[in-house]
Structure formats: C-alpha cells, structure tokens
UniProtKB/TrEMBL annotation:
<feature type="transmembrane region" description="Helical">
    <location>
        <begin position="248"/>
        <end position="265"/>
    </location>
</feature>
<dbReference type="GO" id="GO:0022857">
    <property type="term" value="F:transmembrane transporter activity"/>
</dbReference>
<protein>
    <submittedName>
        <fullName>Simple sugar transport system permease protein</fullName>
    </submittedName>
</protein>
<dbReference type="Pfam" id="PF02653">
    <property type="entry name" value="BPD_transp_2"/>
</dbReference>
<feature type="transmembrane region" description="Helical">
    <location>
        <begin position="97"/>
        <end position="118"/>
    </location>
</feature>
<feature type="transmembrane region" description="Helical">
    <location>
        <begin position="16"/>
        <end position="40"/>
    </location>
</feature>
<feature type="transmembrane region" description="Helical">
    <location>
        <begin position="150"/>
        <end position="168"/>
    </location>
</feature>
<feature type="transmembrane region" description="Helical">
    <location>
        <begin position="326"/>
        <end position="345"/>
    </location>
</feature>
<keyword id="KW-1003">Cell membrane</keyword>
<feature type="transmembrane region" description="Helical">
    <location>
        <begin position="124"/>
        <end position="143"/>
    </location>
</feature>
<keyword id="KW-0762">Sugar transport</keyword>
<keyword id="KW-1133">Transmembrane helix</keyword>
<keyword id="KW-0813">Transport</keyword>
<feature type="transmembrane region" description="Helical">
    <location>
        <begin position="66"/>
        <end position="85"/>
    </location>
</feature>
<feature type="transmembrane region" description="Helical">
    <location>
        <begin position="200"/>
        <end position="218"/>
    </location>
</feature>
<dbReference type="GO" id="GO:0005886">
    <property type="term" value="C:plasma membrane"/>
</dbReference>
<dbReference type="InterPro" id="IPR001851">
    <property type="entry name" value="ABC_transp_permease"/>
</dbReference>
C-alpha cells in the first residue's frame, strides 16, 4: 500500500506543479518573443517589455485602473471556465457582454426615482439575465438541433454588435448627442465606486466573490459534479441518469450571465452610456483568461489580473516608448497564442504523466 500511496502523492504533486508552471512559462515565452519583435523594429525590447509589465503600477490610481480592467476579464473568464468544464465552447462572450450592456442601459435609463440600493442591483440583474438569455439561444440550438455552439455563438456575436449599432443610432440614440450613443443612465443606476475620486467600482469585489462561488459550485456541489461529468463523457453521464441537455443549458447560461454582468458593469460603472464599441474585446480575451486558468474559476482571478496588467501596460508602452499600437496588439496576440499552445502542451504532458 505504501508504494501505491507514494505514487499517487507524486502524481498529484506533479499535476499541481504542471498547472502552476505552465501559465508562467506561457507568459514568459510570449513576452520574450515580444521583446525580440520590438528589438527587430528598432526598440529596446527588454526595456519595453519591462514597461509593459510593471509600468502600470505607478500609483494607486494606476492600480485602480488595472483592477477596473480586470473586472470584466475575471467575470467572463470565470464564467467561461464553467462552460469549458462542461465541454461547451462558448465563443460568444463578446455578444453576451453587449446583450447585458443593452439590457442594463434600458433599465438604467427607463426607470427613475428609485434608490441606488434598488436601481443599481436591478441594472446588474438585467445585464446578467440578458447575457444568460443570449447564451441560452446557442444552448437551445445545441441540445435541440445539435448545432455547433462554436458557430452559433460566433454568429450571435455579430448579431449583438449590429443590434447595438442599430440601437445607438436609432431607437436609443441620445437626441442631444452628435455621436452614436444612448442617453446617460440616471445617477441612481450607476455602480457605486469604492473610492470617490477613482473610477474603480464595487464590480471588482463582486467579480472575485462570484469567481470563488463558481469554484465552490464546480468542486463542491452535485450540480457542479454533474457538469464536469457531462464535460468528460456525456454518454456515461446519460447512462448514469444525468440530464445532459439540462446541464449543457445550465453551463452555457452561467457563462452568459457572467458576460452579461460584465457588460452591465461597463455601462453602469465606467461609461454610463451605451456606445457602439463599448468593449475593447473583453469577450474574446476572456477565453484566454479561462485557458490560462486551466478552466479553474479561482485561478481566473489571477489570470484576469494578469491580462488586465498587460492591457494597461500596453497603453503605457505606447505613450512612454512610442511603440506603435499595431506592435502592441501583435504582442498581446502572441501572449494569447502562447497561452493556448501551452494549455495544449499541458494536457499532453498530463496524459503522458
């Protein structure tokens, strides 16, 4: 028994080490490639990457901006962890974010006279429900017609973006504004800020709490266990009496609700209006957050913080080092590709081990 127990302990320790080392290696390799790319274009690669990683931590206000950017990434990444653990490849978080932003804007502009303790939560709830409903369309098409959720969620992204453009240039357009945008949300609908003279709001606290809750849900609840079993082997889950279709719907709707809540926070906590391009790509970046976290909602907190740091650092890099935006976007793309590649390598090494 002792050799078997030692082997089990060694195997478990190896898996933990592999899970910890892989994301660090992925980001390190990506940043090294970015440094080489910058050097080939006439910049000091090492200095530029140092600015990109550490340049955002100049003061508390800068840290607050990092946390502000981390909020939607943590929400979306943690939600996608649930979908991915159920083998539901939800690529539509961007569209679900926009659906949540639209619903939050409708609630935030159409109701008046409510207390902030009622109106602000209603805005969040509307965003989450809209995101879940938008994701539920793809879920229904999958369980009813076996349509690929990859295709349907991508198509729904385009529909959500086009719908947003139509609304802010038509029915929801602010008549007094020269640019496509909605009316401003009433003050009581705004997400409360943590510090009055900073843009950081309580959304970051809610994002962390929800990420922890989703981890507990996946690892400690019977429903979470069912989701993981369906993701590993839907045929075995069905044979064991689990409702595969229901679990698929639950998983994709949870991920959609988290993305919709991220959209609500962008409207109610940051812009206070709906714009055509309210998201800089948080929905797509959230996929990389989930992959870097190895589909662990708890790890998505750190992963989302890392990507937020790189996003803020890239803005500082453009200002201080005069690096063209195109190069910065290429470096961000290298990071995402490296994360995906190392995630696949981790799975291969885990099988071999």
């Amino acid at each position: 028994m002792y050799p078997q127990a030692a082997h089990t302990f060694y195997r478990k320790l190896s898996q933990i080490a592999l899970s910890a080392v892989t994301p660090i290696a992925a980001v390190s390799v990506a940043l090294a490639c970015g440094a080489v790319l910058l050097w080939l274009n006439g910049f000091n690669g090492l200095d530029a990457i140092t600015v990109m990683v550490f340049g955002s931590f100049q003061d508390m206000r800068a840290v607050g901006e990092i946390l502000l950017k981390a909020t939607p990434l943590i929400l979306i990444g943690a939600g996608l962890c649930v979908a991915f653990r159920c083998s539901i490849w939800n690529i539509g978080a961007e569209g679900q974010l926009y659906a949540g932003a639209i619903a939050a804007t409708l609630v935030g502009t159409s109701l008046d006279g409510l207390s902030v303790w009622i109106h602000a939560p209603l805005v969040m709830l509307a965003g989450a429900l809209a995101g879940a409903a938008w994701a539920g369309i793809a879920g229904y098409l999958k369980v009813r017609f076996r349509a690929s959720e990859i295709v349907t969620t991508i198509m729904l992204n385009y529909i959500a973006l086009i719908l947003t453009s139509y609304l802010v240039t038509g029915p929801m357009k602010d008549a007094s504004a020269a640019y496509p945008q909605s009316a401003r949300l009433v003050r009581e609908a705004w997400t409360p800020r943590i510090v009055s003279d900073m843009r950081l709001h309580i959304g970051i606290l809610i994002a962390v709490v929800l990420a922890v809750a989703l981890y507990i849900f996946l690892q400690r609840s019977s429903r979470g266990f069912a989701l993981r079993v369906v993701g590993l082997n839907p045929h075995a889950a069905r044979y064991a009496g689990m409702d595969v279709a229901r679990n698929v719907m639950v998983a994709i709707c949870i991920s959609g609700a988290m993305a919709g809540l991220a959209g609500a926070f962008e409207v109610a906590g940051v812009t206070h209006r709906l714009y055509q391009n309210i998201s800089p790509g948080y929905g797509f970046e959230g996929i990389a957050v989930a992959l870097l976290a190895n589909n662990n909602p708890l790890a998505a907190i750190l992963s989302g913080g890392l990507f937020a740091t790189l996003r803020s650092g890239s803005e500082v890099l453009q200002i201080t080092s005069q690096v063209p935006q195109v190069l910065v976007l290429v470096i961000q793309g290298i990071v995402i590709l490296s994360v995906v590649a190392f995630a696949k390598l981790r799975d291969i090494l885990r099988i071999v081990a």
